[in-house]
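Lab notebook: predicted structure, single chain.

Context: the supervisor wants predicted structures on file for every construct in the current expression panel, including those that have not yet been purified. This is the next one on the list. No modifications to the sequence; it matches the entry in the shared construct table.
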Amino acid sequence: MPTNEKELNAALFDQLTLVERIERQVQKGDLETVKEEIEILKKEINRKLYQQPPLKSE
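Prediction complete. Output recorded below exactly as produced.
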């Protein structure tokens, strides 16, 4: 969880970017590309979630 406003804003901008990437493909009507984009995004998110060493040590 973000610990300050800067981290929260960065997380929100990342999420907004992801939504915009998907929207572009939806507007093109290319649902197969949308599915591929979603799979790529899920992999990117998982890499961030499980990166070693972690961003913040507990």
